[in-house]
Structure formats: structure tokens, C-alpha cells
Write a structure and sequence with these properties.
single chain; alpha/beta; Rossmann fold; 2 domains; 5-stranded parallel β-sheet; two-stranded antiparallel ribbon; 15 helices
């Protein structure tokens, strides 16, 4: 494992420690216990698929498993412990030589497969290519001399192009001796069915607010509003860290305030929001605003069927959503709007339409959805 850590890393969340540097895993005890049970009873599989929403700890678990496997060789293979009980956790002492080498990306028995740096474009590649997968052949040949287990972390498997996926499939079909592959997948349905069928799945779940607060503290991103972050991030620590780093709670509160006058819109405020994503270097802010509009519309649509959001992610959110979406009829209209506007935003981003125009168009279409619903409610009142 010799990737250059001075380059941007495709498997790092901005503002957060890399998963290899995250020692604890919060809220995923069931997945960890499932792996330990397989290890303790001798039912170890050579391929493991770690699934769940983005940012809930899948990569952190993969690194914990890798540290555990590379520091406990020979145990658990036949399920016989004698007087030695199986370990209760995957914890490895921070001062262990293997832990030090892994942190320095210098452990010869570990291979990290991820999107590589494109020297010509001076940017990360958009996919994991077959050339990166082919490097595994050299890794297995060299690491075989070390003996013991060899571990591969793929982060994330969703990003493999078709040739890379087929090359990895061959390894899963005929794995080298003592090799274990840990595949992180945010959207496992995008993987080849044959890859999924050759792996045992560890499913990770979204985090509750208390677990979210603990995970954020462990990542050095503490917040006074963990419940609001949990609501906006969908229980994803990675997304919560991004929201914290980019002041997403304040931005979401601004969106709620902007829309609080519906069915009439504050046009100057809408133009100001749109202008904030104009110009070079605004891509990150545009992506965040796009995401927050999709979250707002999703929470709004659910209000008509399930009641106002609790906890609130911004002051006045519950009252606004209750007024805009009081019942199932409005819920259906807002659900359709959420789907349509989300698709328009993603398509516009993909074909490089003007970000400011896209945001303004979104706000105006929200106004167009709100107006007839408000008129209908007034008639029925």
C-alpha cells in the first residue's frame, strides 16, 4: 500500500479525518458483531460487501476489519479457541506496528483500491479503471512472501467502470489464498449481480441523533444541534460533517425563511440566493443548495402523510410545512414536485447549465406548485 497521501483522496470526506485515521465506529454494533461472529465460528468469507447510505461508517468499518485481520493471523480460521475467548470488538491498539504502518499507507499486506489521480488532467479520475484493478496482481505476488492474510479495501465499488468490475469479479471467483476483499458500496444495486452473489453483505444503518452527536465529536466536528444535523443528513455522518463544514444548517434556515412567504415569493431574496452560486468556484455551494432543496421538498411531502417534521431542522420549518402540506392531496403534489425538480436540477448540473438560473428556476417552480394548492385550501375552508 503506497498511495501518495499528498494527493487529493477520493475516499475522504472534506473536513473529516480519513477512515484509516478514525479509530472508533459509532452506532454500527450489529454489523461489527456479525463480522466477529463469522470470524469466531470459522465462517469467514473471502468477499465482504459493506452496504448502507453514504457516510454512515462503511469505510471506517472496512479499515477496522482490515486492522483486525492483519493483527490477528491464524485465529478464527477453524473456530477453535481453546481457553482463549474470541475478542468482543475489532479494536486494535493504536501503538500496534501494523496500525502505524496502515496509518502511514505503508502496510505491504493491504491494498487500497480507489479512484486514482490523473496526472494529465490534474484531477481525480471519475471512475476506478481496470488498470487500477490490474495492480492487484502485483500486490498478491509480492505480499505472498510475507505470509498470512492479504486484505483489499475497495472504496467504493460503485465507482468501478465495467472493465474494472469484470476484472475484480475474476478475483472474487478465484481468490488468492488467504485473501479477503472488503467492498464498500453506497449503491450495491449498481454492482454486477455476480459480484454481489460472491460476497457476504454487512449492512450498515443511518445513525440516531445521539449516535450522530458521538460520531461528530469523534470526528472533531461537534455541533450544538445534532438532531437538526441528523435530520438534514439522513443519519449520515459524512453528510453531517459536510453540512457542518459548509455551514449547511444556516443555509437551510435561509431556504426555509425564503419559502416562508409562499404562496407568494420574496423575489429579491430568491435572486440573492441564485446569485450566490454564480461565478467560478461556486460548484460546492451549488451542490449543497441543490441537496438542501431536495431535502426540503422530501420533508414537505412527508408532512401531509406523516405530520410535521420532528425534530425541526430550522426555525419555523414545522409550521411552514404544515401550512403548505396539510393533507394527502397536497402530499402527492409535493412528492411529484420533489421528483420533477430533483431530476431537473441533476440534469441541469450534468449538462453544465447556469447554476444561478437552475436555482432561480427551482424556487419559481416551487412557487408555482404552492399557488394552486393554497387557492384550493382557501376554497375548501
Amino acid at each position: 500500500m503506497s498511495d501518495d497521501q499528498t494527493m487529493p483522496e477520493s475516499d475522504r470526506v472534506e473536513g473529516a479525518p480519513h477512515p484509516r485515521d478514525t479509530r472508533s465506529l459509532v452506532g454500527q454494533h450489529r454489523a461489527e458483531a456479525s463480522f466477529l461472529d463469522a470470524w469466531a465460528t470459522g465462517r469467514m468469507h473471502h468477499g465482504w460487501l459493506l452496504t448502507g447510505p453514504r457516510g454512515v461508517g462503511k469505510a471506517t468499518l472496512a479499515w477496522r476489519i482490515a486492522r483486525f485481520l492483519l493483527t490477528t493471523p491464524g485465529q478464527g480460521d477453524d473456530g477453535l479457541f481453546g481457553a482463549t475467548p474470541p475478542p468482543p470488538t475489532l479494536d486494535v491498539p493504536a501503538d500496534h506496528p501494523v496500525a502505524h504502518r496502515m496509518a502511514a499507507m505503508a502496510e505491504p499486506r493491504l491494498f487500497l483500491l480507489r479512484r486514482a489521480w490523473d496526472e494529465k488532467r490534474k484531477a481525480l479520475k471519475t471512475v476506478i479503471t481496470v488498470d487500477e484493478v490490474r495492480r492487484l496482481k502485483s500486490f498478491f505476488n509480492l505480499s505472498a512472501t510475507e505470509g498470512g492474510r492479504r486484505v483489499v479495501i475497495v472504496d467504493c465499488a460503485d465507482e468501478m467502470n465495467p472493465n474494472a468490475a469484470n476484472a475484480l469479479l475474476k478475483l472474487l471467483e478465484e481468490p488468492p489464498e488467504n485473501a479477503i476483499l472488503l467492498l464498500v458500496a453506497h449503491q450495491p444495486a449498481r454492482l454486477l449481480p455476480t459480484i454481489r452473489s460472491r460476497c457476504r453483505e454487512l449492512r450498515l444503518t443511518t445513525l440516531a441523533p445521539d449516535d450522530m452527536a458521538a460520531a461528530l465529536a469523534a470526528a472533531g466536528a461537534e455541533t450544538a444541534r445534532p438532531q437538526a444535523l441528523a435530520a438534514l443528513s439522513g443519519g449520515s455522518v459524512g453528510e453531517a460533517i459536510r453540512l457542518t463544514h459548509l455551514d449547511g444548517l444556516t443555509l437551510y434556515a435561509g431556504i426555509v425563511e425564503l419559502l416562508s412567504g409562499l404562496p407568494r415569493l420574496d423575489r429579491p431574496a430568491a435572486l440573492k440566493l441564485a446569485d450566490s452560486v454564480a461565478g467560478k468556484g461556486s460548484e460546492t455551494r451549488f451542490d449543497l443548495i441543490q441537496r438542501l432543496f431536495e431535502v426540503f421538498l422530501g420533508r414537505l411531502a412527508r408532512t401531509g402523510a406523516m405530520g410535521p417534521p420532528s425534530p425541526e431542522a430550522a426555525p419555523g420549518e414545522a409550521a411552514l410545512m404544515t401550512r403548505l402540506c396539510p393533507g394527502t392531496e397536497a402530499a402527492r403534489a409535493w412528492a411529484q414536485a420533489a421528483e420533477t425538480l430533483g431530476a431537473r436540477l441533476r440534469h441541469g448540473r450534468a449538462v453544465n447549465l447556469d447554476p444561478a438560473s437552475l436555482i432561480l428556476d427551482t424556487v419559481l417552480r416551487i412557487e408555482q406548485t404552492a399557488a394552486p394548492l393554497a387557492a384550493r385550501q382557501a376554497t375548501q375552508a
